[in-house]
Design goal:
The complex is a heterodimer.
Chain A lengths: L5 H9 L3 H12 L2 H18 L8 H20 L28 H10 L2 H12 L4 H8 L3 H23 L2
Chain B lengths: L2 H12 L5 H13 L1 H19 L8 H11 L7 H25 L5 H4 L1 H15 L6 E2 L3 H8 L19 E9 L2 E10 L2 E9 L7 E5 L2 E8 L2 E7 L3 H12 L3
Antiparallel strand pairs in B: 1-2, 2-3, 3-4, 4-7, 5-6, 6-7
The chains are: A mainly alpha, B alpha+beta.
């Protein structure tokens, strides 16, 4: 007897992560309409491959599919946004310490996140908004953990700089 | 540790991704270096801002509906039956296993009881894949609320540190397509997974072995519990007894 109804199976491995999927797509695509299309395409692909999903982290599995869909969409519709970053060049340069300050302005933070390069924005969304571990982010983005770490460091620094600069009256 | 090394590790440190030894070194350096200590608080205040400004988008209802339609052209099974059916596998399988084990000593038990095999697989996978916990704490007031919003039930979380079975943490797991709560306990050097999910019907408890792991199944307060560990069965029974005590 089949232990799993394939449709219930699909629901169980996709539905709990739909918010995370949409959130990632929304931040990568930059708008609601395209994000919705991307997630629908990703879920259709997930449905096709649901039978072959063999357990393990279903959130990482789904988000990796969403990410691939999003990057495919970006390359087609916004190629200039997907500039490849030489991760070798992300060696940590000693910056002066950025002081802690109140970042209560949501719109400022939203704008700052939107300004980041795609790979940096993706790292922040997956880590600081969705709470994935470095290992999970590495699985979703298909890069080594060290790359995840350096992208996060760079992204956070850029956010702090952006907000402190724009926050000055 | 100097400031350059600190810079390389500070983000991993704040994210809890650094091993204990290097975390201690990072903290020691920060205690003696104000500039580096300020970096830690800068990262933390950024994270708080990102978390508290609700920058995360939720899937719109239209999308949720569309994705559901992909999954269910036929009428889906009503939920209560799903839980019942999962439990029947344990109950039926447990009896079948006991009978068959007597006759076929070398037979693979999971052939006759696929869901029992899945419980053990989930246990082994949690130990291997460095994904033992999503929430790492022995404080039940940290672990229990962590499950809120992730499960449509609230598992009873207890810590048994005085009895030498400290709560190690918790995570979500999947058994037979259902999301269940997994609580992880420690005893001496053993780790025990306690899977918990809602019960629709009461069933009797059972103890069995699969691939060298001991599995104890029982009900507490309308929840099914499945304990899995390589601990010996008398110690498993001790933990099971404590879990089974009503508050």
């Amino acid at each position: 007897m089949s232990a799993t109804d394939p449709q219930a199976h699909f629901e169980q491995i996709v539905m709990p992560h739909l918010d995370a999927a949409y959130n990632l797509a929304r931040w990568l695509a930059g708008n609601h309409h395209d994000a919705e299309d991307i997630v629908q395409e990703a879920c259709m692909r997930a449905h096709r491959f649901a039978a072959s999903y063999r357990g393990g982290n279903s959130r990482s599995w789904l988000l990796a599919i969403v990410r691939n869909m999003a990057y495919t969409w970006l390359k087609k519709n916004r190629p200039q946004a997907v500039v490849s970053i030489d991760d070798e060049q992300l060696a940590e340069i000693e910056d002066p310490a950025v002081p802690a300050f109140d970042m209560g302005d949501a719109s400022l933070l939203r704008a700052a996140l939107g300004e980041l390069a795609v790979e940096f924005r993706e790292a922040i969304v997956l880590r600081d908004i969705e709470g994935l571990s470095y290992k999970e982010i590495a699985e979703v983005a298909d890069v080594p953990v060290g790359t995840v770490m350096s992208r996060l460091a760079r992204a956070r620094k850029q956010l702090q700089t952006y907000v402190s600069r724009k926050g000055e009256v | 540790m100097n400031c350059a090394e600190f810079n390389l590790l500070v983000h991993a440190y704040v994210d809890g991704e650094l091993d204990v030894m290097r975390s201690v070194e990072v903290e020691q350096h920060a205690r003696g270096c104000a500039a580096c200590a300020a970096k830690i608080s800068a990262i933390k205040s950024l994270q708080v801002a990102l978390r508290e400004n609700e920058l995360g988008y939720h899937a719109p209802a239209s999308l949720r509906h569309a994705v559901r339609q992909m999954a269910a052209p036929a009428e889906p099974q009503p939920r209560p039956q799903d839980w019942q059916w999962l439990w029947k596998f344990f109950a039926v399988g447990a009896t079948a296993v006991a009978v068959v084990a007597l006759m076929l000593r070398s037979a693979t038990l999971s052939e006759f009881n696929p869901v029992l095999g899945e419980v053990v697989d989930a246990h082994v996978r949690s130990l291997m894949a460095n994904h033992l916990t999503d929430v790492l704490s022995s404080d039940k007031h940290t672990v229990k609320p962590w499950f809120a919003g992730k499960l449509d039930f609230s598992p009873d979380v207890k810590d048994f540190t005085p009895q030498e079975f400290p709560l190690y943490g918790g995570r979500l797991d999947y058994l037979n397509g259902h999301t269940v709560a997994a609580l992880v306990y420690q005893h001496n050097k053993h780790l025990i997974n306690v899977f918990i999910w809602p019960a629709e019907t009461a069933t009797s408890s059972s103890e069995q072995t699969e691939h060298g792991y001991n599995v104890i199944l029982f009900d507490v307060n309308h929840f099914h519990y499945a304990l899995v560990s390589d601990m010996d069965s008398s110690e498993m029974e001790q933990l099971a007894g404590m879990l089974g005590e009503q508050k």
